[in-house]
Each structure stands twice: as structure tokens, then as C-alpha cells.
What does this fold into?
Amino acid sequence: MSEDPVRVCMHVDAPAEIVYDLVSDVTGQHRFTEECTRSQWVHPATGPEVGAVFRGSNRNGPFRWATTSEVVSAEPGRRFRYMVRSLGIDVAEWEYLIEPGDRGCRVTETTFDRRNAFFRYVLAPLATGVWDRSEHNRRNIERTLDNLRRVAERRA
It folds into this structure.
């Protein structure tokens, strides 16, 4: 079962390569994301390449949970996408699409809900405290992209 994706775009006044380096460095994503508090590559992975696996720790207020993700697209300066799993079940795909422009780039962050009905309506709300995941993700993506923009523009 899958709902429509949640997608938000933002202009970033920084080169696409800087933005890609930030979003694909999963060990540093916690600096600008809303729920992720920590991520680490799973050996033997050391960086963003297709098939690389990383573990993430997440929080929403008092709720804490862990996920395992696998990189499904790693195109430097263009796209970083990964599949998120929890308890061995696909729960979401996240994608950063980066489009270079005259002044900086346009970044589109999208999430695709991959949860089955039991996971969506019973397990996930109890584990994360989020009942309307689409709306929650939309707000978080807006904040995340604004934070990403500030970090990237400082680096540029």
C-alpha cells in the first residue's frame, strides 16, 4: 500500500556538489534533518554508493526508533535515494533530487510511503507518535530543507 509521495522543493544558493555532499553524508544528516539524531554506515560501507547500508536513530519528542536503510541511487551532484526498513519491512523511500541552476541549485526532497496497512495504522503511530505521517513529513521536509539551505550556503 502506498500513498502519494510527499515532495517539497527549495532553491539553495550553493553548488549542487556541496548540497549532494551534505545529503549523502548520512553520518552528518542529523545537522539539518528533523527526526534523525544519528546515522552510521554498516561495515563494509564507508560512503554513499548503491547497495551501501546505514543505520539511523530517530526521535519525535519522547518517541525513539531505529531504522536500517539501503542506498538505491547515488549520483554525485544530482540524486541521493535510499530505502528505509524497520523490523525488516520496507517503510519508506527518501530522495534528494538536485538540479543545478544559474545561481545555486534546486533541491527536491521526496518521501514515498511504503508501509503496509498494519504498519501504517497500528505499529508506526505507536512507535513514533505520528498518526498523520504525510502531513508530519511535509512539515519536517520544509524545516529540513531550510536547515540544509543554511548549512550549504555557509559552506559555499
Observations:
- The CA atoms of residues 38 and 57 lie 5 Å apart.
- The beta strands are 6-12, 36-41, 53-60, 63-75, 79-86, 89-100, 105-113.
